[in-house]
Design brief:
Elements: H1 6-11, H2 16-22, E1 32-40, E2 45-52, H3 61-65, E3 70-78, E4 82-85, E5 94-102, E6 105-112, E7 117-123, E8 125-134
Antiparallel strand pairs: 1-2, 1-5, 2-3, 3-8, 4-7, 5-6, 6-7
């Protein structure tokens, strides 16, 4: 199977669930809506949950049965080195998710469409914590 989703699949430690659900479709990481983010100082991790704009062409049967239309992805980064946050944003803002990996350090940024950075973290490991779907009106 060919890799999808640009940097997300290459950087994730466990990309298999995204590959299984989206197959060869590309996730639209340029237009996500952040649902939440949490900093866990005890476990040295940050979790970011967001909704993607596109829905898989062939979703899991239970998603179809329940008439879900929105996918939420939760990413968790461990061994945090840097956190930068600008609180001048709203959770209804559409943002881009930018990922990069250099010299063993992963950089994850959330950027408003006007190229205003509002959240950036750097760490060593990026995991898919959860992928789920729900009905959004």
């Amino acid at each position: 199977m060919e890799d999808i989703n640009n940097e997300l699949i290459w950087i994730l430690v466990n990309p298999e669930p995204i590959k299984a659900i989206f197959k060869k479709e590309v996730l639209d990481l340029d237009h996500i809506n952040v649902a939440s983010y949490a900093v866990d100082s005890i476990n040295d991790s940050v979790t970011v949950a967001f909704d993607v704009r596109n829905f898989p062409t062939t979703p899991p049967k239970k998603w179809l049965a329940q008439k879900f239309n929105t996918v939420r992805i939760m990413l968790k980064m461990y061994d945090i080195e840097v956190i930068n946050c600008n609180y001048n944003f709203g959770f209804k803002d559409t943002v881009r998710l930018l990922l990069d990996k250099k010299d063993g350090v992963i950089s994850m940024s959330l950027v408003k469409e006007e190229d205003v950075l509002f959240f950036k973290i750097k760490g060593k490991w990026l995991y898919l914590d959860k992928i789920e779907a729900y009905s959004k009106e």
